[in-house]
Amino acid sequence: MFFILGICIAFFLEFLLLMKKNKSGADKVLAVWLLLMAIHQALFYHQITERTFEIPHLLGALMPLPILHGVLLYFYVLEATGKKITTKIRLLHLIPSFTLILLLIPFLILPPEQKIYVFKNDGIGFEWYLLIHQISMIISGIGYTIWTLLLIRNHQKNIQSKFSNTDKKELQWLRYLSVGLGLIWVVAIFFDEHVIFSGVAIFVLFIGFFGINQLNIFTTPIIEPDKKNEVTTTKSIQSSTDSEKMRYAKSGLNDQMADQIYAKLNELMPQNHLYKQDNLTLSELAKQLNVHPNHLSQVINEKEEKNFYNYINSLRIKEFIRLASQQENEKFTLMSLAQDCGFNSKSTFNKHFKAYTQKTPSEFVREQNTAV
């Protein structure tokens, strides 16, 4: 019954995606992936109930499918984070799957009776294929999981150089999705197919829950970044100054120009309180200063030793401390003051405040009041 539930949910999510208007590239990849998961689970259920023996042509059909899941996860994350690869590169990623299909041909052309015999005798005569299949499946699954997590991490770093607030642009669920698929591959090493496909059913439920409740994947398009916009998640607020310096090595920005931009920045920010704009971007700030965004990013990294994201949020924290220290603001909640400073998420505010002061906002304000 549990397997049937997983199959039904996969087909239902597939239906929602197909009915969605203005589908993005990520939506299309997810639609293909969900269809694969539905078919994969259906074939497995057909096999464990031994109904497959009634249709011998289906025997072996699910063997090449597992290796595709890691590839489609990678394609999905590429699309969702705005990374593009050519059709030739995509085909290269599919070569292992095509190879498994080709190696399976000797089994597929067997008469139905022999196919059933092989299946009922633990793959007798095709042990070599089962070994290749098992090894390639584990390597592909875990390899693509790690590759995808690295892609998300790199994208996470890039977003902080352009946005002051990433709360509404997070793709944190992709990290969970990657880890979840990785766990299934680990389970595949130690447990039998019943446990594995139970994990797959839970995985489909996970996609539905997070897709609908967190990112509305099945009702609204994923934002696909262009040259001015990227979508990612943020976890670490550590500076990436060294890597930024390498990237800016040939920018053409000299010390005099950098000092001028920095002086204009220090004049504009306290004067106009631009950091209070919760969706302030590097491009918007550069336009206000009439400088190139790359030059502004370089100046912030070199002069402040922070990326754009951390620089703006540090200004917001300073403003919060200023406002919280004023007696007339005691009637306001800490979060309302934080929102006035440009934060639109309590978790992000707490994270940056703790990093800046080594205390939680409530602890800091309590100590301030006690000192007074």
Helix proportion of residues, in percent?
55-70%
The beta-strand count equals: 0
Rg, nearest Å: 26 Å
Oligomeric state, counting identical vs distinct chains: single chain
* Count of distinct structural domains: 2
Succession of helices and strands: HHHHHHHHHHHHHHHH
Q: Mean pLDDT score, rounded?
A: 81
**Biggest sheet: strands, sense, closure?**
none
Put simply, the count of helices is 16
Strand proportion: under 5%
Shape: elongated
Which terms would index this structure?
2 domains, 0% strand, Arc Repressor Mutant, subunit A, 372 residues, mainly alpha, single chain
Structural overview:
- The protein starts with a helix and ends with a helix.
- It is mainly alpha-helical and 372 residues long.
- The protein has two domains: 2-213; 241-371, Arc Repressor Mutant, subunit A (Orthogonal Bundle), CATH 1.10.10.
- Helix 3 runs antiparallel to helix 7 (172-190).
- Helices cover 68% and strands 0% of the residues.
- The longest helix has 33 residues, at 127-159.
- It contains 16 helices and no strands.
- The radius of gyration is 26 Å and the shape is elongated.
Short description:
With 372 residues, the chain is mostly helical.
Task: Map the helices and strands.
Elements (H helix, E strand, L loop, with lengths): L1 H18 L5 H24 L17 H15 L6 H22 L3 H9 L6 H33 L12 H19 L2 H21 L27 H7 L7 H18 L9 H8 L3 H12 L3 H17 L9 H7 L5 H12 L3 H11 L1
